[in-house]
Amino acid sequence: MVHRQTLLLLLSSLWSISFLAQNNTDNNYQQELSGSELSIEMVSIPSGQFTMGSPTSEENRDTDEGPTHAVEIDAFWMSKYEVTWELYNLFINRNIDNETNQVKGDDLTLAVDAVSGATVPYVDMSLGMGTDAGLPVGNVTHLAASTFCKWLSAKTGYFYRLPTEAEWEYAARAGSTDAFHFGDTVTALDDHAWHYKNSNGTYHKVGQKKPNPWGLYDMYGNVAEWTLDQYLPEVYKSRKNKTINPWEPAATEYPRAVRGGSFDDDVQDLRSANRMASKEKWKMRDPQFPKSRWWNTDAPFVGFRVVRQKELPNVLEIEKYWN
Prior knowledge:
It is a single chain. By secondary structure, the chain is an alpha+beta fold. 20% of the residues lie in helices and 14% in strands. It has five helices and eleven strands. Residues 1-24 have low confidence and may be disordered.
């Protein structure tokens, strides 16, 4: 009897530690995935205000980066690393859907089998760059990235989604007002990012470069990252006063906003304020008709990372975020 009580107390303590790790808004945590040895490390991003966009004085500035404007962001968590092929393949293969030996969150109740499954790729979507452990996933469409978030939410019970453009830039800056989180000069960029001049034409395992001050890796370079927003080149002009949690929901498939630059981009395209628009030609070599909803064939340089809000939205908002 004593042993049974001791065991129950131990299990209760372990559950409490796991629960607190995922619900204390001041803490980073590790999202376990039942049925897999893989997990996603989530970094706590504080609420705050920042200046979004770039000043006219910033070198290599593009016109879609202005005018600068004040933005207020609520606290959230963001994945420390870009989503890797091995993580994404859990969603593709769906072998762990019915593994339930974990305490699920209560953000939402969604059956895993209610989430659409992406098609298995018919060719090597890494285009020879590899899908080994630690390599970031690429060539996934915006729909595929967002559906991964929906699957992850159903699997864990916690609401995950893609970041908004504003959340992405806020996290990338990590309090900085310069072109990069470490300053305006590019001389230190090799320490923080894989780009055209140092990548040897390929993406690399996540987390090999230095993180930004908030502990996020590869925010610049490696693979560029999907955001939730429709890409609107002049949208900043409409934000006259301080904007709270701005988001431009997509009305069309193209273009969507992509951030961070990639291993295939020049250094000026890795700046915190730089914006890129998705293109239909990223499916150019797709022989299917209609072309795949899940895979690009010409954008191995675009991947994603996930976020989780600390203030849970309502059910209708959640579905809107997943689009």
